[in-house]
Write a structure and sequence with these properties.
The structure is a single chain. It contains 14 helices and 17 strands. The chain is an alpha/beta fold. The protein folds into 3 domains: 111 residues, Methylthiotransferase, N-terminal domain (Rossmann fold, 3-Layer(aba) Sandwich); 237 residues, tm_1862 like domain (pyruvate-formate lyase- activating enzyme); 64 residues, OB fold (Dihydrolipoamide Acetyltransferase, E2P) (Beta Barrel), CATH 2.40.50.140. The strands form 5 sheets. Strands 13-14-15-17-16 form a 5-stranded mixed beta barrel. The structure holds S-adenosyl-L-homocysteine and iron/sulfur cluster (SF4). The site of iron/sulfur cluster has 9 residues, from helix 6. S-adenosyl-L-homocysteine binds next to strand 11.
Length: 438
Amino acid sequence: MNKADSERMAGILEDMGFEWSEDPNQADVILYNTCTIRDNAEQKVYSYLGRQAKRKHEQPDLTLIVAGCVAQQEGEALLRRVPELDLVMGPQHANRLQDLLQQVFDGNQVVATEPIHIIEDITKPRRDSKVTAWVNVIYGCNERCTYCVVPNVRGVEQSRTPEAIRVEMEELGRQGYKEVTLLGQNIDAYGRDLPGVTPEGRHQHTLTDLLYYVHDVPGVERIRFATSHPRYFTERLIRACAELPKVCEHFHIPFQSGDNEVLKRMARGYTHEKYRRIINTIREYMSDAAISADAIVGFPGETEEQFENTLKLVADIGFDQLNTAAYSPRPGTPAAVWENQLSEEVKSDRLQRLNHLVATIAAERSQRYMGRLEEVLVEDQNPKDKTQVMGRTRTNRLTFFTGDINELKGKLVKVRISEVRAFSLTGEPVEVREVVSV
Ligand code: SAH
Ligand code: SF4
């Protein structure tokens, strides 16, 4: 989500006539797009900012911007901490960057953190990739997970219209993009805030309907979406994924904890049994589907036994990948002020144990690819071996094979897998699929 916001803001800057600089010390405008999901992400920005604030004393026309979730969380306080800042802007204001900068160039120090209705993109994002692209479908989050700062900083849910999403995807298809990832903090909430109900009484616009609506966009060969919430994940959606050939067989569905009591205190709204049922249903429809998730260890009050329930869930499900984190208390969230916080030692010990298990299980899951023919969408050169290119399987496994990036970038290549590792594969190219766009 942050990367997508960065690309949109970079696009606005480019549109205003700014050029990209690799060296921050040469830049006239520096924009930090920040994350506050955990404390270590937040601390990073202060160390970068300190250096540039110093430079501003020698170069007063340097423009310093903090955007994103730290900006939203800290607001005016950030100006008091770093008075050299010119602009503090929350994530909802990303599309307003040009207006806000104009106010700065007129001589104002600006803080833009008030909740607003997010305006449709008017500028083109400056996308890092020429092959895969992010497309926001819903901003914000209406959940209230007790550990999470996102609803405070990203505001309430705001869905884009299916038409606006399709127009953006059609443009991507014309530009040669092959893969689109639809984005939302809780993408299953898509459409709840849009008008319209069906005769059966359900919302007219759901993620499932959106998938059917955008599926035939010419040129786009693969569609992914993230992040799914187990509370709202439906069989109807699973059926659509199985039915629609462009939707990839990879599901990112964070479970956070494998223990029902912890899940309850996290206010997640499901049990581990329900989570298991969802995964079983996915596998009934798509036996080879890859499953990934996020999990938190060391939530306040988590006992050793409760942590072991998380280990058990991870082992039972057999995740292809898992993003793990030690619980980090966030300002303004309920769990941050509970008294049953765990020590850093306990948290880091549990994190290590979980990571170890994840690597073992992912390696086991990788075994199934051995000798198989997989379709890989080539994204880039392998930075560690220039004779190789890299891309992803439909199930999102990173795959390397010998080839020339100039010939293969953006191509779908059938690759015979000859080496498997926990989180990546190596193979031999067998056939390049020619995609004829209409
Ligand atoms: N909307 C998504 C993800 C939100 S943030 C969801 O609901 O799953 C991404 C991940 O960061 C979360 O899934 C969670 O695992 C982790 N996270 C969020 N708040 C955290 C906190 N306070 N401490 C540690 N990890 C956290
Ligand atoms: Fe945070 Fe929960 Fe919303 Fe995800 S669903 S962004 S974890 S509040």
